[in-house]
Amino acid sequence: MLCQSDYIDMPKRKIKLTGSEKILLVRPDRLGDLILSLPVASTLKKIYPRIVIHFLASHYNAQVFNFSPDVDNYILMTESDGKPLKVEKLIGVLEAESYAVALFLKPSWLSAFAAYIAGIPIRVGTWRRPYSLLFNIRENVRRKYSGIHEVDLNLMMLRPFGIDVELGTVTPSLKTGFVDGEDDIGLGVDNNYMVIHPFSKGSAPNWPIQSYLRLADMLSENIAVVITGQYNSQLDISDRIYNLVNKTSFNQLVSVISRAKLFISGSTGPLHLAAALGTPSLALYPDHPNLGPQRWGPRGEKVAVLTSCKQNGHKYSIKNNGNNDCMKSIKVNTVFEKACRMLSDGAMSV
To answer: 4-161: which CATH number, 3.40.50.2000, 3.90.1150.10, 3.30.230.70, 3.40.50.150?
Structure first.
């Protein structure tokens, strides 16, 4: 039974780590969200090099941990078909691992309940949700319309550990040392190419796909252009374009992106993947307080962002394919000129 003594008044008490604990970070949602939570792991590792960090993540997105030096292992919260694990199975997995701490960067009823029943002694989450009662340490972090970047919001969840990171100072970082020859898709362009990723799963407004394809045609006069992503409909892609739509594994996508001279996309997981890999990236975003770059923009030294006209609506204005009328205000010529400048500058000064 939960009782009042289970709860800790955060201003009065902090968590003291010895530096050898095994900690579970919970972020079982989309690829971009997961990548933007990696600075929590890198910050903990920097302070406590011997600490063991596991993630609770979805089946597909967990592949990104193969490229993170700060994550020791992961647990899958979904089956290979994307369906959530049954609660009793998840409880059993958590019990077997004997975690000292579970830090919920993206909580749910299932993960919070499983951690509680599994007996993880320290469970850190946020206030306001009904299942927040299952956390015995609760931090007051408000994400929506906060005006704070998602990376920094995740790092704010470290405050109960006495770790206070200055906003805007930490970026996600991934390493490609694990990519081997089997993951080389063999483009045959001597790494002198750029990547355009025009597809979105609909969580944020996207630039029209036809605008991406027109941009690809224009840029292909100067450099080899590769199109990546998953798409269910037929596309009219020029013969000059290297079409990798529906043709790459996750590791192959990492390999292709990591070697590109420039990456262009909207607010997508592969955009954050490119930025974390250090690939120069040009991002297209709406001007919206909860969907725009101030909250979800790519973090890195080689990133640039173009924004649309101001959007006052929310998700209801995003169509099923992720397109949004407001995003049409970003002109193809504007993106083309910015991309050309980044390519000519080596994308070092954006």
So the answer is: 3.40.50.2000
